[in-house]
């Protein structure tokens, strides 16, 4: 094997496991001299091996395709360095000095006097604008993220006035999409915001206002779909 080195593999000596998620293991290290994150998807033993290989390969392909489309559209994502289908690994840029939006909101909330919602919204306004603009661009380019949560947005602390937001984890993404898909994408984000961050219902409105400006041609149709998806969600909750 090409990457064997001494008793262990070269990969294991070069990369350190940093997270074991539901779908994948995450490693950090250096690849071709650059700080790198490697995402290695698990084998699912409950699935037939051929089906599992096929599904994993498709997911990795759609992840790579979406990242490329984002780059063309000017949306910041980690650069892809290598896609190794055989070992189920994607090597990507390690976004340095970053924090997830989830942690950032929690951090800002802690520093807000008595959890004052107005104060909190004012502080989060610049980053909400950037997120809305980014999502408007994403959808205007027919890219669906598929898992828009505040853990999948990284905020780079580079001291600049305009926040830099990097979108990650495109494992459920698609690049061929309908207005319905876009409505669902926004609904996922709304639910994620409501369930993890109390006190900031208004934040989603700020994100939507910026979204509308960026995705002018179809935003009204997407917002209408969003309303329909919300209504379906409420019905499901009532029926149980
Ligand atoms: N390229 C990157 N640069 C910096 N940090 C990253 C990068 N990719 C992932 N992370 C960090 O690792 C976390 C998990 O990443 P990711 O969502 O891709 O993995 P996952 O296994 O799908 O996670 P989960 O099971 O929680 O959805 C992110 O929230 C982020 O903190």
From TrEMBL:
One Pfam family this sequence matches: Pkinase
Major enzyme class: transferase
Database matches in Gene3D superfamilies: Phosphorylase Kinase, domain 1 (3.30.200.20), Transferase(Phosphotransferase) domain 1 (1.10.510.10)
InterPro entries: Bud32, Kinase-like_dom_sf, Prot_kinase_dom, Tyr_kinase_AS
Gene Ontology CC: cytosol; EKC/KEOPS complex; nucleus
Keyword Zinc-finger among UniProt keywords: no
Annotated compartments: Nucleus
Biological-process GO terms, alphabetical: tRNA processing; tRNA threonylcarbamoyladenosine metabolic process
EC number: 2.7.11.1
Catalytic activity: L-seryl-[protein] + ATP = O-phospho-L-seryl-[protein] + ADP + H(+); L-threonyl-[protein] + ATP = O-phospho-L-threonyl-[protein] + ADP + H(+)
Oligomeric form and interacting partners: Component of the EKC/KEOPS complex composed of at least GON7, TP53RK, TPRKB, OSGEP and LAGE3; the whole complex dimerizes.
Family as reported in the entry's similarity comment: Belongs to the protein kinase superfamily. BUD32 family.
Function statement: Component of the EKC/KEOPS complex that is required for the formation of a threonylcarbamoyl group on adenosine at position 37 (t(6)A37) in tRNAs that read codons beginning with adenine. The complex is probably involved in the transfer of the threonylcarbamoyl moiety of threonylcarbamoyl-AMP (TC-AMP) to the N6 group of A37. TP53RK has ATPase activity in the context of the EKC/KEOPS complex and likely plays a supporting role to the catalytic subunit OSGEP. Atypical protein kinase that phosphorylates 'Ser-15' of p53/TP53 protein and may therefore participate in its activation.
Protein name per UniProt: non-specific serine/threonine protein kinase
Organism: Coptotermes formosanus (Formosan subterranean termite)
């Amino acid at each position: 094997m090409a990457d064997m080195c001494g008793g262990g593999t070269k990969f294991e000596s070069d990369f350190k496991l940093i997270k074991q998620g539901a779908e994948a293991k995450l490693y950090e290290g250096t690849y071709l001299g650059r700080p790198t994150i490697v995402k290695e998807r698990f084998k699912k033993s409950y699935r037939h091996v051929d089906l599992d290989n096929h599904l994993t390969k498709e997911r990795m392909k759609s992840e790579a395709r979406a990242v490329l489309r984002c780059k063309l559209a000017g949306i910041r994502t980690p650069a892809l360095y290598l896609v190794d289908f055989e070992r189920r690994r994607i090597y990507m840029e390690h976004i340095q000095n970053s924090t997830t939006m989830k942690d950032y909101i929690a951090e800002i909330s802690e520093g807000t006097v008595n959890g004052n919602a107005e104060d909190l919204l004012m502080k989060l306004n610049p980053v909400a604008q950037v997120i809305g603009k980014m999502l408007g661009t994403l959808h205007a380019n027919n890219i669906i993220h598929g898992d828009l949560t505040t853990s999948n947005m990284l905020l780079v602390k580079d001291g600049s006035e305009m926040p830099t937001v990097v979108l990650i984890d495109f494992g459920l993404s698609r690049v061929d999409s309908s207005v319905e898909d876009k409505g669902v994408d926004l609904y996922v984000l709304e639910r994620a915001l409501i369930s993890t961050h109390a006190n900031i219902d208004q934040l989603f409105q700020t994100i939507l206002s910026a979204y509308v400006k960026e995705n002018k041609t179809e935003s009204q149709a997407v917002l209408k779909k969003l309303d329909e998806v919300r209504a379906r969600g409420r019905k499901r909750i009532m029926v149980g």
